[in-house]
Design goal:
By secondary structure, the chain is of the alpha/beta class. It has helices at about 45-55, 75-85, 115-130, 145-160, 175-185, 205, 210-215, 245, 260-275, 280-285, 300-310, 320-330; strands at about 15-20, 25, 30, 60, 95-100, 135-140, 165-170, 190-195, 220, 295. The protein has a single domain (about 15-330), classed as Alpha-Beta Barrel (TIM Barrel). It is about 40% helix and about 15% strand. Helix 3 runs parallel beside helix 4, helix 5 runs parallel beside helix 7 and helix 9 (about 260-275) runs antiparallel to helix 12. NADPH dihydro-nicotinamide-adenine-dinucleotide phosphate binds near residues 32 and 226.
């Protein structure tokens, strides 16, 4: 086992926001495990990114049953670190997982049934080597399952002590309200919602955020870098070590069209005038809405992680900058 001692100054490097009307604080930047932490990568290399994240005060790691290649490997690999280097720090970490997308064969490995969610959480706990996760999510609404049943699975996970809090992901405003009401009748608070939100996908601001605010639910925004599009990664071609070249994630080369590139270049210029990189401005923009508790970022290198954390030193925008930004990629 490698000896790892966390940086003593880690909590001075990060700011924390209250998650809705709860007692829980989350770091403004959280680390997402969908890509980059798979068996297909090199454990010794990506574990350095994870430990560097913790040294930067990133106390929240977000997972799901199906993250990694093969599915489940992101949980298994974090589990290795939780058993060794991160073992002394378990109580300083917020670990989340989810179930909702396709995970195993047959009718009980996908969707929103109680059968699937409960079995999946047990599998996740085994892979992570934990007795409980901090947050368990319904990963997506399942229109063929009554919401009462999906919420019943979340309620049971809390009542059995397998999850401390529960959350929703990819639910629209109407379904969020419905789910929050069902949970609340059973005495379980919906802690957090995880929507896709970025300069390219702004709809949650008007459609979802008011519902979250009204109900005191926190918000952790995913893909606010649009899988790398809202960074300098693709401004001058497609690098060979990028997500698009490696054919992982869900962006492809034909997503980069001349209209998008023009908008990204305009945004990059605004970012430069603010003394930021495009990635840093995209992160700061997402956090400029106080209803956003945290942004959930993927990173394929320590350099990216460090660049992204530096965005926190300039989160203020002038009205003129916001107006210019709004014009670049449409509403
Ligand atoms: P992001 O928008 O965070 O993109 C991450 C990618 O952007 C990195 O892998 C890297 O690409 C590139 N990147 C990051 N920082 C920089 C930088 N400073 N400069 C240049 N490039 C950079 O999207 P993800 O898809 O990774 O999602 C983040 C997390 O959100 C996931 O891990 C997961 O936890 C969550 N998520 C939740 C979903 C849900 O349904 N609830 C769905 C999808 C994600 P490269 O690899 O090319 O270097």
């Amino acid at each position: 086992m490698n000896i790892y001692i966390a940086d003593d100054l880690r909590y001075e490097k990060m700011s924390y926001r209250r998650c809705g009307k709860s007692g829980l604080l989350l770091p403004e930047i959280s680390l997402g495990f969908w890509q980059n932490f798979s068996d297909s990568g090199v454990f010794a290399e990506y574990s350095k990114i994870i430990l560097r994240a913790f040294d930067l005060g990133i106390t929240h790691f977000d997972l799901a049953n199906n993250y990694g290649t093969p599915a489940g490997s992101a949980e298994t690999n974090l589990g290795r670190l939780l058993k060794n280097e991160l073992k002394p720090y378990r109580d300083e970490l917020i670990i989340s997982t989810k179930a909702g997308y396709d995970m195993w064969q047959g009718p009980y490995g996908d969707g929103g049934s109680k059968k699937y969610l409960i079995a999946s959480l047990d599998q996740s706990l085994k892979r992570l080597g934990l007795d409980y996760v901090d947050i368990f999510y319904s990963h997506r609404p399942d229109y063929n399952t009554p919401p009462e049943e999906t919420m019943d699975a979340l309620i049971q996970s809390v009542k059995q002590g397998k999850a401390l809090y529960v959350g929703l992901s990819n639910y629209d405003g109407k379904r969020t309200q419905e789910a929050v009401d069902i949970l609340s009748k059973a005495g379980v608070r919906c802690l957090i919602h995880q929507p896709k939100y970025s300069l390219i996908k702004k709809e949650p601001k008007t459609e979802l955020f008011p519902v979250l605010e009204k109900n005191g639910v926190g918000c952790i925004a995913f893909q606010c870098l649009a899988q790398g599009l809202l960074t300098s990664r693709y401004l001058n071609g497609i690098p060979t070590d990028s997500r698009i070249s490696k054919n992982v994630g869900s962006i492809r080369s034909n997503d980069i069209n001349p209209g998008l590139l023009e908008g990204l270049r305009q945004l990059n210029e605004i970012a430069e005038n603010r003394g930021q990189t495009l990635a840093q401005m995209a992160i700061a923009w997402a956090l400029s809405d106080e209803r956003v508790t945290s942004v959930l970022l993927g990173a394929s290198s320590i350099k990216q992680l460090e660049e992204n954390v530096l965005s926190l030193s300039n989160k203020l925008f002038t009205a003129q900058e916001l107006e210019q930004i709004d014009k670049c990629l449409g509403k």
